[in-house]
Specification:
TIM Barrel, 2 domains, disordered N terminus, Dipep_AS
Length: 479
């Protein structure tokens, strides 16, 4: 327990004691002295009125002082619980008593035991390809903490034990293909990654089970397993083909990130918003709009992490279903172009979508080092701008090499929920952050699919003029 907190406790005891002594005050207005002038407290005559006044002054100054932060936290929590005030002030790390910390961690664990924690983005399949050549027989995913090369690789954050410790209820596993595969073998690479995800689920069937709907997530969570979903990162993976997009959906893919660190021939990416860069399409091309419409028809979520602001705007103009940011932060907190400006956040709320907050240091702190508190700042800012109903978590574990302290791997999610409890979040709101918001988004996407059921598949091809000469080098005529 901190010294400041101990001092506060002493002052409270003194204040209460002196209040009790006030009943002994006699008619002459003096404390501790009988009417005949004799001493009544162990023969020690003290001017207790002055002591009382001085102690009361210290007590009042202690409360109002901005230097004493532990006691106001207790007051904040009491206010919120009693009158429903949401307090979003972000404080710096403090010495918190172990009893309080353990209590909040216990509550966090209980929340994540009754509501599935849905993480929007994990690149484990990519790391398996890099470190094990996609050969699942070469390692045991149960525990990789002390197993090389996993234990020494800065992008290795995931195994089954840590997933369980982190109370993960559902995970979007990402089928990622690098930009160098664009206009080459990106569809093949994406399918190989999807195949790897299926093999992973099958090999560890006692832990994982494939999910493709919101209801399946809840059903699998009730069985004590981790619901496993598939997202494709990088729209170049479809090879500019709506037929490949539809095939991905049939393979279980439930979201696609429209771009990665490169533009596609139909959508601009976030790097084009950097100083000195210029847009190519000024958002989506006509074919890009068709892709969004077809994703709506299929019931595949449109992920606009990694895209430019103009592309975000165009997607929000076109999409009939809620859209997602699977792993992004708030631009107002860290002005990296991978993050989302406030005006887009407001449009996202009107769209009914969700932003799943990322944990990568450069995106949360605009620096190579970061802590859990930087992530909290993003969450709190987004909540201040659009409310709690549109926030989720997308750590980007196994896809980055620098993560915040206290969020070092997938086992650390309860730390984040415990800190938000300390900052005044209610359990109901933490349930939304954990998974209820994402379940709502998925159900609405599924509903839009049903509403668009009479719509025929879009059979357009990308216009030839949208492709640069270097884009056509690996293309052949069907005939």
């Amino acid at each position: 327990m901190s010294a400041a907190y101990n001092n506060q406790l002493v002052y409270v005891i003194i204040f209460n004691r002196l209040t009790l002594l006030s009943s002994a005050r006699n008619e002459r207005g003096r404390w501790g002295r009988e009417s005949d002038g004799t001493c009544s407290f162990d023969d020690v005559c003290v001017d207790m009125e002055r002591v009382f006044s001085f102690s009361a002054l210290i007590f009042v100054l202690m409360i109002v002082s901005s230097e004493v932060s532990g006691f106001p936290k207790l007051i904040h929590r009491s206010l919120e619980e009693n009158v429903g005030i949401t307090l979003n002030q972000i404080t710096e790390p403090e010495n918190v008593s172990k009893a309080i910390e353990l209590d909040e961690l216990t509550i966090a664990h209980k929340i994540l035991e009754r509501v599935p924690l849905i993480d929007g983005h994990n690149d484990l399949p990519h790391v398996i390809r890099l470190l094990a050549e996609s050969q699942l027989a070469s390692f045991n995913l149960t525990d990789l903490v002390d197993k090389k090369p996993w234990s020494t690789d800065p992008t290795s954050h995931t195994d089954i034990l840590r997933l369980r410790q982190g109370k993960i209820g559902a995970q979007f596993w990402v089928a990622y293909t690098s930009c160098k595969t664009q206009h080459n073998d990106s569809p093949q690479k994406a399918i190989e990654q999807i195949d790897l995800i299926y093999r992973l689920i099958d090999l560890y069937a006692d832990t994982f089970q494939l999910a493709t709907t919101a209801q399946e997530i809840e059903d699998i969570f009730a069985l004590g397993k981790i619901a496993s979903l598939i997202g494709v990162e990088g729209g170049h993976a479809i090879g500019n083909s709506l037929g490949v997009l539809r095939t991905f959906y049939r393979l279980g893919v439930r979201y696609m990130t429209l771009t990665h660190s490169c533009p596609t021939p139909w959508a601009d990416n976030s790097q084009l918003d950097n100083p000195g860069q210029a847009p190519i399409h000024d958002g989506l091309s006509g074919f890009g709009e068709a892709i969004v419409q077809e994703m709506n028809r299929l019931g595949m979520m449109v992920d606009i992490s990694h895209v430019s602001v103009s592309t975000m705007e165009d997607v929000l103009n076109v999409s009939k279903a809620p859209v997602i940011f699977s792993h992004s932060g708030a631009f107002s907190v860290c002005n990296n172009t991978r993050n989302v400006p406030d005006h887009i956040l407001r449009r996202l709320a009107k769209n009914g979508g969700i932003i799943m907050v990322v944990f990568y240091n450069e995106f949360v702190a605009c620096d190579q080092s970061a802590s859990l508190y930087h992530v909290v700042r993003h969450i709190q800012h987004i909540r201040n701008v659009i409310g709690v109903d549109y926030i989720g978590l997308g750590g980007d574990f196994n896809g980055v090499d620098r993560v915040p302290t206290d969020l070092e791997d997938v086992s650390k999610y309860p730390n984040l929920f415990a800190e938000l409890l300390r900052q005044g979040w209610s359990e109901k709101d933490l349930e939304k952050l954990a998974g209820k918001n994402m379940l709502r988004v998925m159900r609405r996407v599924e509903q839009v699919k049903m509403e668009l059921f009479p719509m025929e598949p879009i059979e357009e091809w990308i216009p030839t003029e949208d492709l640069q000469p270097e884009h056509k080098q690996c293309l052949t005529e069907y005939s």
